[in-house]
Amino acid sequence: xxxxxxxxxxxxxxxxxxxxxxxxxxxxxxxxxxxxxxxxxxxxxxxxxxxxxxxxxxxxxxxxxxxxxxxxxxxxxxxxxxxxxxxxxxxxxxxxxxxxxxxxxxxxxxxxxxxxxxxxxxxxxxxxxxxxxxxxxxxxxxxxxxxxxxxxxxxxxxxxxxxxxxxxxxxxxxxxxxxxxxxxxxxxxxxxxxxxxxxxxxxxxxxxxxxxxxxxxxxxxxxxxxxxxxxxxxxxxxxxxxxxxxxxxxxxxxxxxxxxxxxxxxxxxxxxxxxxxxxxxxxxxxxxxxxxxxxxxxxxxxxxxxxxxxxxxxxxxxxxxxxxxxxxxxxxxxxxxxxxxxxxxxxxxxxxxxxxxxxxxxxxxxxxxxxxxxxxxxxxxxxxxxxxxxxxxxxxxxx
Length: 399
Ligand SMILES: Cc1ncc(COP(=O)(O)O)c(C=O)c1O
Known about the structure:
By secondary structure, this protein is an alpha/beta fold. The protein has 13 helices and twelve strands.
């Protein structure tokens, strides 16, 4: 039999999904599993989007233009304006989810062997896309003790060499919920400028910022307009993960030209998805407010609840809908698996993502988990009780 490619071998399994077989087995045994592991919003999609899909009146479901429908891109200009991001429709390329935007950014800007500096813990699929593009992720470590704030300039500079081509940030952050301050964004700008790097900025969670701190987009940073590639998606902001619509945005025409060649090769972003995404821009303000208010309450419920459990610590996430929490266990990978395979409390258990999968530095995140607050408050409250009981019963507990 021929061999699998090295790339295929090197591709990491998703840390979010790797416990899925154990969860399936628990469900088979009749155990209810609270999914704190995955960032799939459960709140309703805007009615306007659902209606637009229901009333599609076409005789052919054709390819759309490779860069996405002009009408949608033009409306997006107005959406970004509200965030003080000034674009033209030509700066925006519609992609198959934010995922494809990340991949095309890497494929268009990086040569095999080129290095990207990423603060860790990081969204795990960045590593997978880097491997797909032959690029190398180098990480600067952020720590739970420092609330996952950005490491000092020197930590970045220690990693910079002739292969360094880009910095990648996720703001607000998945998995930590951290939001970069103006000072931190300026620090990133200065490094990008000094070493003439690309800045890939994944801002798919911009709707979810809870602290009143300003949202500083990479597009707000002066003097590096040609270096910035913005990654975006409708998956989270409208609970539309399944329509697979994202965007790659840059003022850099050369980058756009390269990205367009990848877009043309994959022909078209999803047609139906664009119809829904375009309609979502008509969603009333209450939609955004209600969704936001719900996440604010869930965040409070989860974070307060976690910090009340003996030995557990979670910083207060400023954005997105995740937190990385420290648990009093010997090994979070083992604990998360044990919760699914060896534990239940009143017929229930919890599924969490071990944080080790979000770090590239071996050994980090060993007693941390990522939790998403995309469950109803009542379910979050029940999941917290189950977690506390699991921590009391776990043979590898450290308190
Ligand atoms: C930080 C971040 N970026 C990008 C994505 C990709 O999302 P999608 O491809 O659904 O747009 C996700 C999904 O979870 C994410 O968390």
